[in-house]
Amino acid sequence: MEKQKHKSKNKEKHPKEKKINIFSNFGIGEEKDYFIENLSMMLASGMPIMLALDGVGAELRSKRMKEVIASLKEDMEGGSSLWRALDKTKLLSSQVISLLRIGEESGRLAENLKVINIQQKKEKDFRSKLRSAMMYPILVMSFTVVIGAGIAWFILPRLSSVFAELDLELPVITRALIAAGEFLGEYGAIVIPSVLLFVILFLFFVFAYSKTKHIGQSFLFSLPVIKKLIQEIELARFGYILGSLLEAGLPVVDALESLESATTFRSYKKFYKYLQNSVEVGNSFKKSFAGYKNVKRLIPTPIQQMIISGEQSGRFSEVLLKTGENFEVKTENTTKNLTVLLEPILLIVVWVGVVAVALAVILPIYSLIGGIN
Questions:
Q1: What's the pLDDT tens digit per position in 277-320?
Q2: Counting Cβ atoms within 10 Å, is residue 247 exposed (0-12), middle (13-18) or buried (19+)?
Q3: Residue 116 belongs to domain with CATH number
């Protein structure tokens, strides 16, 4: 009987937890950001945590986020801390949970929530800058490919039939145009969709697929202007995320782990992982930088010296935050200038295609007029 009572008590103390579906948090990014932002403001104003959760939950729409709020309230009413309750929901990363735990234990929960909110906004901003910088050339090249495919499929076969009937010595470029037109006239319905599908799949595997996108990243990092933008974004991320997390009280190894998970570029991920392992065994940043091959390619020497100086002077987080601010301004300027720099290159590419087609059409006409004269 005593054993049975003991078992029943254990069951009461450790109720069966709900299993979290790994896909349950998909598509709630905006509401998650809203939750953190408003909870931070309400707690900073002095509102009790339970009332703050009620206030935030009243404005949420998604079923999943309402379930999260209900779960948080239930756990906290049972004596749990906020960070433990949030950890059970799998809503936030382990680094964010660590920040919340440090904030609760030190009485700086509102301040650390604010840091988390700003960090997530900055991360979105960094990603959007890179996307917007690449969007213009991608759109121009896409329209060029679509228009070129339309000309090749619908116009070239008709031109080839006209020129084939002319009793003229056609230029090489025109003969090539005729051959292409005849080929597309017969097989265009198969060739054009196949080529477009191949291009889409190629771009997906080179730039988007997780296991092979490092190939596209390496290519982008080899282009002078794009490389500069990527480096500035990564240095802004490095300075801001590492500086703000250290200032909030997160250990440097955990802050580096958070930095590694935030970046999308493989070369920087490897570097941050190396820094994390190096610092964990007791090495300084100076020694860690010196032991990494081609570190200058990722972090310029002047920035390394600033970071080393900040570490040695005890102003590490301050120097990192200042570095982040400086490079954030530089990314804005580079993003604006990138379109101006790429525009002439794109115009030349389009111009070459237009001139090639124009010459192929105009040269036979000149030959025909000369023959009539």
A1: 999 999 999 999 999 988 988 999 999 999 999 988 888 888 99
A2: middle
A3: 1.20.81.30
User: Does 128 map to a domain?
Assistant: no
Cα distances from 194 to residues 143, 154, 190, 202, 205, in angstroms, run 17, 16, 6, 12, 16
Cα separation, 101 vs 84, in Å, equals: 8
The structural domain count of the chain equals 1
The token pair at 135 is 């969007």
**52: in domain:** yes
CA Rg, the chain, in Å?
30
CA 286, CA 282: separation in Å to the nearest integer?
12
Global pTM exceeds 0.70: no
Q: Which domain holds residue 108?
A: 28-121
Q: Is 93 a domain residue?
A: yes
DSSP code of 212?
T
Q: Which two tokens stand for residue 309?
A: 């100086």
